[in-house]
């Protein structure tokens, strides 16, 4: 997977250790745990610094993770909706069969098997549901939602950066389209044991997103949180910045367009020494994906609150 990086022995190390299951525990799960532990270390400290109650940190993190998993699965089903509910004669054939058969139609993803499988996660579903769950918790406990969300932003940025590394080491499907560019780390090739085409250099979109999110974390952790911005300024900034990053990287990813603007490319055979050489030819983007539409929406939401509440201003200092 990392064979375009000229570091002796790194390929064998990654293949043998990083991207394997350790006794049934996937590397993606390990990265999720690492993201959770990092956030559980940062969030209580930030709540204390902002003179908020740190005892709520555990519940905020647990509900955030739970909401992320639930939302990511729900949005994944929406993404493959046309594959789950296949056009067949009669109402029962199209809608009832996937509901009553765990694995769905033969050769197609099933509704229930997709929901309860260990793969298939759409980030923005998790992002929206995670915020929803923790917001409901804060409203129920009559907490200052704006202040607590601001305190959570650095942890969210770091957690996302680590989570995207999990997508990378597990050989997740969020890779980019094929490219002849050779940029160490930002371009890589899947190896034959992957479920994806091998021998084809592709954009390493998980690493790109992870690097950008680490920079966002440094911005919020080292500078923005000390600027005494109005409440929810950090939250609005994160919505805008993250939305811009995801909107941009989606132009490099192999994703289905919700409304195609141009004809999608066709599968072609690209010569490869081993593995499956079938891949898409040319520039792939042919219309905005589900994630891009959500990105645009959260950018607009962030800009709306930024302008409405003048969140670039500082809080008034007490006399």
TrEMBL record:
EC code(s) of this entry: 2.5.1.145
Membrane-spanning intervals of the chain: 22-43, 59-81, 121-139, 151-171, 200-220, 232-249, 290-307
Name assigned to this protein: Phosphatidylglycerol--prolipoprotein diacylglyceryl transferase
Gene Ontology CC: one annotated term: plasma membrane
Topology of the protein relative to the lipid bilayer: Multi-pass membrane protein
Subcellular location: Cell membrane
A GO molecular-function annotation: phosphatidylglycerol-prolipoprotein diacylglyceryl transferase activity
Main subcellular location of this protein, as a coarse class: membrane
Binding, a 1,2-diacyl-sn-glycero-3-phospho-(1'-sn-glycerol): 164
Stored HAMAP family: Lgt (MF_01147)
Pathway given in the UniProt record: Protein modification; lipoprotein biosynthesis (diacylglyceryl transfer)
GO terms under biological process: lipoprotein biosynthetic process
Function as written in the Swiss-Prot or TrEMBL entry: Catalyzes the transfer of the diacylglyceryl group from phosphatidylglycerol to the sulfhydryl group of the N-terminal cysteine of a prolipoprotein, the first step in the formation of mature lipoproteins.
Pfam family, one: LGT
Family, similarity comment: Belongs to the Lgt family.
First-tier enzyme category under EC: transferase
Keywords of the record: Cell membrane, Lipoprotein, Membrane, Transferase, Transmembrane, Transmembrane helix
């Amino acid at each position: 997977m990392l064979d375009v990086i000229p570091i002796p022995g790194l390929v064998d190390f990654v293949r043998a250790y990083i991207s394997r299951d350790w006794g049934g525990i996937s590397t993606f799960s390990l990265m999720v745990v690492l993201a959770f532990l990092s956030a559980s270390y940062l969030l209580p400290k930030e709540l204390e610094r902002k003179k908020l109650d740190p005892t709520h940190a555990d519940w905020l993190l647990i509900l955030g993770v739970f909401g992320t998993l639930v939302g990511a699965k729900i949005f994944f089903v929406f993404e493959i909706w046309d594959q789950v509910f296949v056009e067949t004669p009669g109402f029962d054939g199209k809608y009832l069969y996937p509901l009553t058969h765990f694995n769905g139609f033969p050769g197609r993803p099933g509704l229930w098997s997709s929901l309860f499988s260990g793969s298939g996660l759409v980030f923005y579903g998790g992002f929206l549901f995670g915020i929803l769950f923790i917001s409901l918790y804060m409203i129920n406990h009559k907490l200052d939602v704006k202040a607590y969300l601001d305190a959570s932003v650095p942890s969210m940025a770091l957690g996302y950066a680590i989570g995207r590394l999990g997508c990378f080491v597990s050989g997740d499907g969020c890779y980019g389209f094929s490219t002849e560019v050779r940029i160490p780390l930002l371009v890589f090739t899947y190896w034959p044991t992957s479920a994806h085409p091998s021998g084809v250099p592709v954009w390493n979109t998980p690493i790109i997103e992870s690097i950008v999110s680490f920079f966002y974390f440094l911005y919020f952790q080292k500078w923005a949180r000390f600027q005494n911005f109005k409440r929810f300024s950090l939250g609005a900034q994160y919505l805008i910045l993250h939305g811009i990053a995801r909107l941009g990287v989606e132009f490099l990813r192999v994703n289905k367009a919700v409304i195609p603007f141009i004809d999608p490319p066709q599968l072609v055979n690209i010569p490869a020494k081993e593995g499956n050489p079938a891949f898409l030819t040319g520039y792939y983007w042919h219309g905005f994906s589900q994630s891009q539409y959500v990105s645009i929406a959260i950018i607009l939401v962030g800009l709306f609150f930024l302008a409405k509440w003048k969140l670039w201003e500082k809080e008034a200092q007490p006399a």
